[in-house]
Design a protein that fits this description.
By secondary structure, the chain is mainly alpha-helical. Helix content is 79%, strand content 0%.
Amino acid sequence: MAITHEELKVQAAEQDNLVERLRTEKKVLLKKVRQEGFELGIRSSSKLAYKDFLHFERVAPLAASFDEDVLDNLWSYLDLKGYPQQARLQDPDFAHLLDIDPQSRIVFAQGWIEGVLSIWQMVKDQVDAERSSNS
């Protein structure tokens, strides 16, 4: 009985180690997914209009409450803007991950908005200064 008890403790510890390792891998993977979305946001910003940037700046706080359908909406939006599908994902492994994992779709779209807004923050003052000097 003592041997069985010790074996159970070892199994429990191994399971805890497995859970911790998988949590760490998940965190790293989601960070990469967010980065991939961020980079697409930067690349696709060239297709956005002034009103698009204003819109995304306004709705950015809602990104925390995205649902898993957000990626379908993002792809449709990029189709509408004429952003080529083949230029959307740099790493083909992400396409499969985005297909199977709802959380990845949400994190990717959140990263995309962050990327778009990073470009907007860099150019916003210049755009607004140009606009006010022409008034």
